[in-house]
């Protein structure tokens, strides 16, 4: 699930980091992005 700018709304790993917990307590915006490694099939 993403917002209108493409940022993930939930932590995809299911385990919150210390920084994420602190940011939520402070009411800060959390920007999440998930990258996926792809295989180069041209070789």
UniProtKB/TrEMBL annotation:
Organism superkingdom: Eukaryota
The protein's name: Os01g0535900 protein
Organism of origin: Oryza sativa subsp. japonica
């Amino acid at each position: 699930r993403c917002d209108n700018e493409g940022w993930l709304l939930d932590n995809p790993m299911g385990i919150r980091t210390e920084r994420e917990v602190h940011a939520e307590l402070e009411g800060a915006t959390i920007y999440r992005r998930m990258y996926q490694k792809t295989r180069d099939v041209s070789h």
